[in-house]
Amino acid sequence: MTRRLVYAWLGLMLLLALTVGSSFIPLGVGNSVVNLAIAAAKAAIVLAVFMELRRGEPLLHLAAAAVGFWLLILFVLSWIALRGV
Amino acid sequence: MTLAAPDRSSYWREGAGIRSWLLTTDHKRIAWLYLTSLTAFFFIGGAAATLIRIELVTPQGDLVSDDVYNRLFTIHGIVMVWFFLVPSIPATLGNFLLPLMLGAKDLAFPRLNLASWYVFMFGSCFTLYAIVAGGVDTGWTFYAPLSTVYSNGHVSMAAAGVFIVGFSTIMTGINFIVTTHKLRAPGQTWFRLPIFVWTLYATSVVMVLATPVLAATLLLLVLDRIFGIGVFDPTKGGDPLLFQNLFWFYSHPAVYIMILPGMGVVSEVIPCFARRPLFGYKLVAYSSIGIAVFGFLVWGHHMFVSGQSTYAGVVFSFLSFCVAIPSAIKVFNWAMTLRKGQVSFDTPMLYALGFVGLFAFGGLAGLFLAALGIDVDLHDTYFVIAHFHYIMVGGMVTAYMAGLHFWWPKITGRMYSEWLGKIAAGLMFLGFNLTFFPQFILGWLGMPRRYHTYPPEFQVWNVLSSAGAVVLAFAYAMPLLYLTWALFWGKRAPNNPWEASGLEWQTTSPPPEHNFDVQPVVTGPPYQYGGQAAEETA
Amino acid sequence: MNEIILHPASASTAAPGFDVLFLALVVFSGLVGLVLVAMIVGWSIKYRRGSSADRTGATAHGGGLELKVVGGLFVVAFGLFGWGAWLFVGRDFPPPGAIHIAGTAKQWMWSFEHDNGEKELNTLHIPVNRPVVVDLVSQDVIHSMFVPAFRIKQDAVPGLTTRVWFEATQTGSFDLFCAQYCGTQHSEMRGQIVVMPQADFAKWLSTRPTDQSLVQQGAALFRNLGCSGCHENSATVRAPDLHGVYGRPVALTSPAHETVIADDQYIRDSILQPAKQVAAGYDPVMPSYDGLIAPDDLEKIVAYVKSLSPGGSP
Amino acid sequence: MTDEPVSKAFDEVGREREADTFGMWVFLGTEAMLFGAVFVAYTILRLKYPEAFGGGSEKLSMWLGTLNTAILLTSSLAMAVAVESAKAHALPFARRMLWITALLGAAFVCVKGYEYFDDMQKGLLPLLGPFHYDGPDSAHAGLFFNIYLMMTGIHAVHLLIGISLVVYLALPIRIPPGRQPKRIESVGLYWHFVDIVWIFLFPLLYLVHP
């Protein structure tokens, strides 16, 4: 059982190295996109493996998805509201 | 006349003395704790409102000074929004009835429930002290940079207090969501739940997802005010519109926190007194969830003229029109429920019918403010004040009264006096309309809100409104008196005085500490009124 | 009781457009409201308990009836949305040849500056039938320029320049309100928009001394330092009204039973040491401004106070 | 394993355990919205002043940030192992892993404290000391460092709460064994959440390129 956790941890460390490594390559706005994508991947690993969301009951999946959707609302509509300013 | 205590076995008799009340984890007693504190806050907010209305009888400011007037409407705003409207139905009727309606023994987290009351009491008393003694005059909206730089009242303490009260709302929200998912009676599928449970669930979803944003906003406000981090301070590069954006992201869903439970109460009362199943039950259930979701998309309509881009204005105006659809469906279905029924006009029904009418008018006024071209003129005028009071007072408080009267026999085991109830309901309806309809006209004429003095040509409408406020104040005092009287000396109530359907009516009035002697089982859809039961697929 | 107004003045090009949409909304919500009340009251009475009305065929679900009805209502509603949005978008396109005014909002006063540098406090003179663009800036908190008669409103946000345009179609004087709560004297932050025939406006603009006279600067200081808070129709603080006081005898309570002529020195002393000569019938609550006012500012205030009396300063 | 539920609302313990886990996830949802709002403030102001944020981010020591991220990810591993072993009723081993988690958390806080001190020395934190900054758009760079301090500060407070919870569970006090795995699992969920917040904080504060 702990083997699965260690693999997840290795994956996280790899992604961390990837993030830091990618910051040396000048990609302009691409850097931020890469950073966020890697961060989302790390968060997904922690959620699925460490927090056992994968083996949790469907209700937990619904809850996690709902929070994700509401954060999306918060960011997208705040951007629409304030970008003109 | 001895004080005839309610019968032996009910939750009243579980323990005697203050300790048993202050340390209880019984959801019914916690509902009582909330009921007493909320009633106190309602009359504190009401007193502030009465002073404001008396001041506005004359165009000059001759009752109180500018400063005191600004503090009065700040107290009225903060106390009414956060210490009465947001918690009122969920924390009192919701706490008492949710376990009963689900056939459960108690909420999922009883200790968390008691903790939420203590957090509420500490936060609200702390805030009340801060705004009264500290002279907070920023209004309940705390707009930056007035609140962060220019106001000299104890804004940080008030913001910290509201921050604490926010956690009480979050705790109640978590408790209700988990209870609705995990503690339903055997056979009680989602579409056999009463609409009151649906609306409490939708309210809890909004509570849980919106209140943390208020907590973050108030935290940023305090950090900006005390340490000057400059997030909202334009001189340091911050953006006052950012504050408005984050504040209204919470505050518009908050108004749906306030109105949804009222819709739930009315969805229980009208079928019972019309002896008809609720018309289009499934659609009313879906529209409750629809309101909870859509409520989060529309907050930009508070910022149409505040420097927000025109593009954003058009987007939010469109979404604000869409959010009216679920509410319109509900109003239509409440009216259709009356058709071909056996309508009786007990006090709860009078309040419920009043709710449907006044809430509909409030909602239609909302369409005015959602239309961009109109909001440019009517924003921040008394038209807005009339709009949200029609929904909060005409809708929410009326539904609160309907719920209190409808479930009073179940909660206390006593009947209230029916004719006094009818008088109070009629007086409230008249007083309310006399108070707030003239404000629609004042807003149209262009009187801005939060004005201590105003040009003389607005005086006649203000005098009408103030007269209405006196009638309303008297109408609110009546239930306080006759319900308290009924608590001790009212006629004994049978288990189901209204022959209503719903699990809460299958136990004794008042219910025993463990709610049900035999675990109720649900076999069919709710609202088993009238001959022909609502088919499962309704 | 002052005269009652039953409908807002309609004095700008935007007003008629607003009024028609407002009327459309009133008619729409009035009809919907009436139908709803009719349904509620009608069915409640017709189907009251024990009445003999026919109740066969009652169903609990309308098979989407409510969707159809509400859907139909919302086709109309979205039309109103479009109409409102079309009016709103017009705010971004002021007609050509507009006069530009720099509007500044600060705690509790409006100041407008014309192209030629002419500054006005709390009043704005504009020509009729010519578009006016006001670029709004705030020096402290959020204010909002609201002229009901023109149906315009625009927040003045600190750190941001916002813009509002209007074209007056009637001459006369119209109320200017601050609509966004901005602190203690939010309700006193009012002014007047004076709409003049184009010829008069041109004459008015040219004859004004371009630089602000002593009296006007004094007036601004009189307000900024809070003198107006007490000396102008304030509610709770009883303070002598300064109109017409200059040059006339003033009875004192301390030193008792003395009367002095309100000359320049009396005004100057009243500002720096108010407790020395207290006017009869008033308690000595006025704070001393000694050390708070620069000498030249003091002269401006004295000039302003004198200007409040006939024959005072020019 | 005691099998009667804690609160009288539940009849069987399985149902109650589901409720506790679901309640914890809903609570973490509220925390996510709280941090979400703070991140919105960060995003809006970064879009407004990209140079200030870019310049300020370069001044922060990326390697300390990377080290801290590694520490926190490892502490999450330790916590996850503690939860697994507690469920497998190996409580002594679970307690040891809890101590490791707490120590790693403390290490994170120490590195963070040192970093604050170092930044203050370099005059980068206007709130804590004189502000010397020569990068682009220095007018708004102070805002970036204030936001940096505010966001990492809120995260550090949540981390300290997490550490005290872990230490409380690691102490061999008499919690009825039946409920121990449940408690450790809940604190574990909270710990992983605080880790996820840092996962997003690290790139947004340390790796900003205009």
Describe what this molecule looks like in 3D.
The complex is a heterotetramer of chains A (85), B (538), C (314) and D (210). Chain A contains 3 helices and no strands. Chain A has 85 residues and is an all-alpha fold. The termini of chain A are far apart. Chain B has 538 residues and is mostly helical. Chain B has a single domain (30-506), classed as Cytochrome c oxidase-like, subunit I domain (Cytochrome C Oxidase, Chain A), CATH 1.20.210. A two-stranded antiparallel ribbon of chain B has the order 1-2. Chain C has 3 domains: 10-37 and 69-93; 99-207, Cupredoxins -  blue copper proteins (Immunoglobulin-like, Sandwich), CATH 2.60.40.420; 214-307, Cytochrome c-like domain (Cytochrome Bc1 Complex, Chain D, domain 2, Orthogonal Bundle). Chain C has helices at residues 14-46, 65-89, 198-207, 214-224, 227-231, 264-272, 295-307, and strands spanning 99-106, 109-113, 119-121, 123-127, 131-138, 143-147, 152-156, 162-167, 172-178, 191-196, 249-254, 259-261, 278-279. Chain C has a 5-stranded mixed β-sheet, with helices on one face. In chain C, strands 4-10-9-6-7 form a 5-stranded mixed β-sheet, covered by helices on one side. In chain C, a hairpin with a 5-residue loop joins β2 and β3 (119-121). The chains are: A mainly alpha (85), B mainly alpha (538), C alpha+beta (314), D mainly alpha (210). Chains in contact: A-B, A-D, B-C, B-D. The interface between B and C is large, with 106 and 92 residues.
How would you concisely characterize the structure shown here?
Chain B is mainly alpha-helical.
Features:
B: 538 residues; mainly alpha; Cytochrome C Oxidase, Chain A; two-stranded antiparallel sheet; 17 helices; disordered N terminus; C: 314 residues; alpha+beta; Cytochrome Bc1 Complex, Chain D, domain 2; 3 domains; five-stranded mixed β-sheet; 13 strands; 34% helix
Termini separation of chain D (Å)? 57 Å
* Amount of helix of chain B: 55-70%
Q: Could you give the count of β-strands of chain D?
A: 0
Query: In percent terms, what proportion of residues of chain D is strand?
Result: under 5%
The unreliable regions of chain B are: 1-6, 532-538
Quaternary structure annotation: heterotetramer
Q: What composes the largest sheet of chain B?
A: 2 strands, antiparallel
Stated plainly, the CATH topology of chain B is called Cytochrome C Oxidase, Chain A
SSE blueprint:
The complex is a heterotetramer of chains A (85), B (538), C (314) and D (210).
Chain B: H1 17-22, H2 27-55, H3 66-85, H4 88-101, H5 110-133, H6 146-150, H7 155-182, H8 195-226, H9 240-274, H10 281-294, H11 310-322, H12 324-338, H13 347-370, H14 372-378, H15 382-412, E1 414-415, H16 418-445, H17 459-489, E2 491-492
Antiparallel strand pairs in B: 1-2
Helix pairs in contact in B: 2-3, 2-4, 2-5, 2-17, 3-5, 4-7, 4-8, 4-15, 5-7, 7-8, 8-9, 8-10, 9-12, 9-13, 9-15, 10-12, 12-13, 13-15, 13-16, 15-16, 16-17
Chain C: H1 14-46, H2 65-89, E1 99-106, E2 109-113, E3 119-121, E4 123-127, E5 131-138, E6 143-147, E7 152-156, E8 162-167, E9 172-178, E10 191-196, H3 198-207, H4 214-224, H5 227-231, E11 249-254, E12 259-261, H6 264-272, E13 278-279, H7 295-307
Chain D: H1 13-48, H2 50-59, H3 62-87, H4 91-121, H5 138-170, H6 180-206
